[in-house]
Amino acid sequence: MSINVQNLVKRYGQVTVVQGISFQVAKGEFLSLLGPSGCGKTTTLRCIAGLENADGGVIKIGDGVVSAPEQGVLIPPHERQIGMVFQSYAIWPHMSVAQNVGFPLAIRKASTAEVARQVDDALGIVGMRHLKDRHPSQLSGGQQQRVALARAIVGRPKVLLFDEPLSNLDAKLREGTRLEIRRLQRELGVAAVYVTHDQEEALSMSDRVIVMEAGRIMQTGTPKDLYRRPSNRFVADFVGRASFIDVQKGPDANTWIAPDGTPIRLDSGRAEAAAHYQAMLRPEAIDLIAAGPEGMRPNGANVLKGRVYDSQYMGAHTEYLVNAAGTTLKVHSTQDFGPGSDVLVSFDPVDCHLVAVEDQAAKAA
């Protein structure tokens, strides 16, 4: 089944936390809602699940309308054919693993034999059959998360919803569980909506990502599109690490001028219309070379004079902070430079993207 959200609105008192957003999730697609705390992503998910009542718009799961407040339609959560994994796992401490997983079936009055069969199936999918008689207090955090996953998929739901399910796990467990969740979703072939504030999770797991801020959709696209070609400053800054150079229009569409007068050639194809623009660079797209004669390299790259003023050793690379073109650039390099080193900053025009900068006065209004 697909998910179709049309003009969704949610208010708490006088505050509108979801401002008329629309999107679709195809059957078998994995979509992430990504954004900072308070952006409306979890509220959107809870409206899809039926745990929050929307104040406007329409939500469809498959061909059925599950929420349409203007028409008085509100289908309860247990009738929406969803499986949901919560941030807190929400596992009953007094129940065994098998009882926790079978609970959704029990409240639907499924037979004892049917519950046992589907619980065994779900626990087999997540590799937890051998722990079915244990209680949550006897499980690790990763094992508890697998119980929550098994409960979400028991009975083969038509839609899967995830509310920051990995935030309580350590880094190694998060990495492994990401792969497990994606494998399960592909195996079941269902639409999935995954809420996170972690851009690494969203980029690594999703077919598409929606970036949200202040209850609005800022940009929708594949992980590569959002990372490589963000349309505005917010998306560029939130999805990965980036540096920004204030620029003014130059002599042609792809040449812009930095604050110190340096011309920068860049990719201007995806930028939204705006009064102000910046050039965006990812740290891995920039090369540092020892200072030498100024000018363009043979491959046509931009070359700027710079000076290293700080660095952080990260293992696989060092992150340098370099003063260049009237701003500070983050640069990832495997070369060694000391503070105060004069360098040349080199980057290809296709790796430098023009992004719109939202007018703060308009945003406040």
Protein architecture, described:
The chain is α+β, with helices and mostly antiparallel strands and 365 residues long. It folds into 2 domains: 3-226, Rossmann fold (3-Layer(aba) Sandwich), CATH 3.40.50; 233-364, OB fold (Dihydrolipoamide Acetyltransferase, E2P). Helix content is 24%, strand content 35%. The protein contains 9 helices and 21 strands. It has helices at 41-49, 97-107, 112-125, 141-153, 171-188, 199-205, 223-228, 233-238, 360-364; strands at 3-12, 15-25, 30-34, 56-61, 64-68, 73-74, 82-85, 159-163, 191-196, 208-213, 216-221, 243-249, 255-257, 263-265, 276-281, 287-290, 302-313, 318-324, 327-333, 342-347, 352-357.
Structural class of the secondary structure composition?
alpha+beta
Q: State the low-pLDDT regions, or none.
A: 360-365
Distance between the termini: 39 Å
| CATH architecture name of the largest domain | 3-Layer(aba) Sandwich
Tally of discrete structural domains: 2
Mean pLDDT: 89
The CATH topology of the largest domain comes to Rossmann fold
Broad shape: elongated
> Care to count the β-strands?
21
**Helix content range of the residues, please?**
10-25%
What is the fourth-level CATH superfamily of the largest domain?
Answer: P-loop containing nucleotide triphosphate hydrolases
Q: Please tally the helical runs, counting DSSP H or I stretches of 4 or more residues.
A: 9
Assembly form of the protein:
single chain
List SSEs in N-to-C order. Answer: EEEHEEEEHHHEHEHEEHHEEEEEEEEEEH
> What radius of gyration results from the CA coordinates?
25 Å
Largest beta-sheet details? 6 strands, mixed
